[in-house]
Design a protein that fits this description.
The structure holds 2 protein chains of 2 kinds. By secondary structure, chain A is mostly helical. Chain A contains 30 helices and no strands. The termini of chain A are far apart. In chain B, a hairpin with a 3-residue loop joins strand 2 and strand 3. Classes of the chains: A mainly alpha, B alpha/beta. At the A-B interface, helix 1, helix 8, helix 12, helix 13 and helix 15 of A face strand 1, helix 2, strand 3 and helix 7 of B. Chain A: GO terms for molecular function: DNA binding; guanyl-nucleotide exchange factor activity; small GTPase binding; zinc ion binding.
């Protein structure tokens, strides 16, 4: 095992050295050259480009001269970008007052960045804000004009940006308006400047057409897709593939990493990497059972990158490397995690059978897709998915079984109850049959009714009111004839005295109009009386006779009431004229008002009454009697009211 | 001007200088790199604490007489297959601890290659310390103290035998590094000008532009 490891151990020294043969170490990024040789080569290449550009201008008529399609594409997009820039720049000169309007299409996002730091600016003051915006604006303009020049390489732009950060840092320490700010606030200001400028310049600086970033993106994407069979075991990574908790953490870290492409500012991209890495640390802690060391962390990160296959990975990494404040990348937690991500990507790029500790032919077979290992992440996922489903279903089934058992028990109980009930009923019925044998009798119902009639005929008690009648003149002959229901009608005004009062007053006062006076109470009694009588019939017929009696009693007193009236006249003798007038004057408007109403409503009422009468033909016979009785009752009540008025 | 930055740090004492250094841990896996750091930063060994989720990146502050040294400790993966990635980690580092296991001769050999690589590729004035960990396992010792001491002297390294388990020499080795680190001079042309944020001498540091960016 160890020997195998040893075999893969050392990369040949010559591999690390500069390709040019100078004794310095080379770098993958620089095409295997050391920094010095790389720069020299670059310079040469640029000169060549300039020459070619000159040539291009000469034979501008023949764009077919471009051999490579990609080169053509790059040229076109360059042109387009320039055109866009022209449009973006045009409004600048017009309104220079607003710093936001400077940045063309990114205005909205730049404002969002500004809003994010609103709290900081409210703390540091407007002076600082204007100064920092001035710096950003000048940097923006400079970089934009630099970017327009096709000879400016992206590395030069990056250098400009880094210089801007350094100059700004120095400015924050030296300028007067920044004095008194804490170092945290200064750092935040630099962050803001970076974020603001980069959000605005993102369109130009991210994956620019002059670089091969896009090709690299495609390459790494393809490479990762090819390596989809790599499992955690291959990487010496202790991820527990069967635990659901770990799964969730892997997924969330993958999501964080994928989120990197959707942010614009380098810091935000760095933030995504940081969140992703923290989740990986967390999940490795769960798997290892202790604090995660780099020995566990890096393989896990490689694994996550392989499974995530983030979009435009290389472009994003290059963008952050070039335009994120270098001090952030070289130190700090974010820098550490970003370095790890770069390492992971570099590892994936240079991955060989040796780095996975497997025989070369096996590796090649995997890479060509000839064999697929059984223990891959995907298969583990599928297995786990199945397990998960089974577990879920089992719990559901368990629950269902419980409920089923409960229902069955209840059914049993119900069945027992039903049987018991049936038995009981049968028993009862049979008991009843035994106790009460069925007898068939001849039908005697009509006979029964007849038998009851003579019993009613022996009803002298209702006649007792006859004694009372002696005092009242008019109703005397009628009251005995009437049955108790009719008697209730006069009783009604007693009960609903309040509502009836007014009507009665009117009738009394407009005594001259006999027809009205006669009609009105009649209708009234019909209207309300019918309802009241109906109610009374049903609810309480027995207590009625006494109430009748009481009413009669009170009525009895009323005819003998001249005595209260007399004191009225005697007591109010000086006021007599006034009182009689005053007594009549208020009544007249009332009278006329209601009489108008009556005139209008009389016929209507009459119709109603007739309708009601038609509806209740039983009562029709009693109407004349009621009429008279009512008029009497009304008179009596009028008297009592007079008495009451005088008393008042 | 020189003392201006000092009092502005909220947690710094009035006249203290605050220096931040990046320190890289190198060494074969399972020699106890992270244990060493955890002992130094958290004072714990093997005691599992829920709050400590990672030992890959940690910071710890050490107080020397008039300066506060803040270590930013970057752990690296020790597995052989990740060896080629190491330059990315020690780029811009001011200090490195190369750890080996005294009970394992191979790890000492690996440590030597690390030292060689650092001396060649890392920034020229990087402070390198050699730590022979697991010194508590004396009966299993394979690498003699004298051998390692001689090697360290030869290459100008700080050397101590440590034990993350007992805590022997753990704080001492970090303190020794802190003492050896330059704290006021400007940073050499290692291309890591921004990597080390000397709050104290920032103005001078910023003026020195890196030559081989």
């Amino acid at each position: 095992m160890y020997t195998l490891k040893k075999a893969s151990l050392r990369i040949d020294e010559s591999y690390l050295k500069c390709k040019n043969g100078c004794d310095y170490y080379g770098n993958e990024e620089w095409g295997g050259y050391c920094s010095k040789c790389h720069w020299e080569r670059k310079k040469e290449a640029r000169l060549e480009v300039v020459e070619r550009g000159a040539l291009k201008e000469k034979q501008q008529q023949s764009p077919l001269g471009f051999a490579k399609f990609e080169e053509k594409k790059r040229y076109q997009s360059d042109k387009k970008a320039k055109l866009l820039k022209v449009f973006a720049k045009s409004p600048n000169s017009k309104d220079r007052g607003k710093p936001e309007s400077l940045f063309g299409p990114e205005t909205g996002e730049a404002e969002a960045v500004h809003a994010e730091y609103q709290e900081l600016f409210s703390k540091v003051g407007a002076k600082v804000e204007t100064d920092i915006h001035k710096c950003i604006r000048s940097f923006y303009k400079k970089l934009l004009s630099d970017a327009e020049n096709p000879l400016t390489s992206i590395d030069e732009l990056s250098e400009r940006a880094q210089n801007f950060y350094q100059i700004l840092t120095a400015r924050l320490d030296e300028e007067n308006c920044y004095r008194g700010l804490s170092s945290e606030e200064k750092e935040q200001l630099i962050d803001y400047a970076e974020k603001y400028a980069m959000t605005c310049l993102y369109r130009i600086l991210f994956c620019p057409a002059t670089t091969t970033d896009e090709d690299k993106d495609l390459y790494i994407q393809k490479r990762i897709r090819q390596l989809n069979w790599v499992s955690a075991k291959h990487l010496d990574c202790g991820i527990d593939e069967t635990s659901t908790e770990v799964h969730d953490l892997v997924y969330s870290s993958i999501t964080e990493l994928l989120g990197m492409d959707s942010t614009k500012a380098p810091q935000d991209k760095l933030g995504c990497v940081m969140r992703c890495c923290r989740k990986i640390l967390h999940l490795m802690q769960k798997c290892v059972g202790g604090p995660t060391s780099a020995d566990d962390f890096l393989p896990a990160l490689i694994f996550v990158v392989l499974k995530a296959n983030p979009a435009r990975l290389k472009s994003n990494i290059n963008y952050v490397t070039r335009f994120c404040n270098a001090s952030k990348l070289m130190s700090g937690e974010g820098g550490y995690y970003f370095t790890n991500l770069c390492c992971a990507v570099s590892f994936i790029e240079n991955l060989t059978y040796e780095s996975l500790n497997m025989p070369e032919d096996e590796f090649n077979q995997y890479m060509s897709g000839k064999i697929i290992p059984s223990g891959t992440w995907e298969s583990a996922l599928i297995m786990c998915e199945g397990m998960h489903l089974i577990n879920e279903n089992l719990t559901i089934f368990g629950d269902l079984r419980k409920r089923h058992a409960a229902i069955m028990m209840e059914i049993e109980a119900l069945k027992d109850e039903m049987i018991k009930f049936q038995d009981e009923m049968l028993e009862r019925v049979s008991d009843l049959r035994e106790n009460v044998p069925l007898e068939l009798r001849p039908i005697r119902e009509p006979m029964d009714i007849d038998a009851e009639d003579p019993a009613i005929a022996d009803l002298p008690p209702p006649l007792s009111p006859q004694i009372v009648e002696e005092r009242v003149q008019q109703p005397r002959p009628r009251s005995p004839r009437q049955d108790s229901p009719e008697w209730q009608i006069p009783s009604y005004p007693d009960e609903a005295l309040v509502t009836v009062n007014y009507d009665i007053d009117l009738s009394d006062l407009s005594g001259g109009e006999a027809s009205q006076a006669d009609d009105q109470p009649m209708h009234h009694s019909l209207d309300t009386g019918s309802v009241a009588s109906l109610d009374l019939f049903r609810t309480s017929p027995p207590p009625l006779p006494p109430s009748n009696l009481s009413l009669l009693d009170s009525n009895q007193i009323s005819p003998s009431l001249p005595s209260p009236i007399k004191p009225l006249q005697s007591s109010s003798s000086p006021y007599q004229g006034f009182s009689s007038q005053g007594w009549q004057i208020p009544s007249i408007p009332c009278d006329t008002g209601t009489s108008c109403f009556e005139e209008r409503s009389q016929k209507h009422l009459h119709e109603q009454g007739q309708q009601q009468l038609q509806h209740q033909p039983v009562q029709q016979n009693n109407v004349p009697a009621q009429d008279q009785e009512n008029s009497l009752g009304v008179k009596i009540l009028g008297n009592t009211l007079e008495a009451l008025d005088s008393l008042l | 001007m020189a003392n201006k930055a000092g009092p502005q740090r909220p947690n710094g004492t009035a006249q203290a200088k605050i220096c931040q250094f990046k320190l890289v841990l190198l060494g074969e896996s399972a020699v106890g790199k992270s244990s060493l750091v955890l002992r130094f930063v958290k004072g714990q060994f093997h005691e599992y604490q829920e709050s400590t989720i990672g030992a890959a990146f940690l910071t710890q502050t050490v107080c020397l007489d008039d300066t506060t040294v803040k270590f930013e400790i970057w752990d690296t993966a020790g597995q052989e297959r990740y060896h080629s990635l190491a330059p990315m980690y020690y780029r811009g580092a001011q200090a490195a601890i190369v750890v080996y296991d005294v009970t394992n001769q191979d790890t000492f050999g690996r440590a030597k290659t690390w030292v060689k690589e650092l001396q060649r590729q890392a920034s020229p004035n990087i402070v390198i310390a050699l730590a022979g960990n697991k010194a508590d396992l004396a009966n299993k010792r394979c690498v003699e103290y004298e051998e390692a001491q001689a090697y360290a002297e030869e290459n100008g390294l700080l050397f101590m035998e440590t034990s993350a388990k007992t805590g022997t020499n753990v704080n001492e080795i970090f303190l020794a590094i802190a003492k050896k680190l330059p704290k006021s001079e400007t940073i050499g042309g290692s291309g890591s000008g921004q990597g080390r944020r000397l709050v104290e001498s920032d103005t001078t540091a910023k003026t020195s532009t890196s030559c081989c960016k």
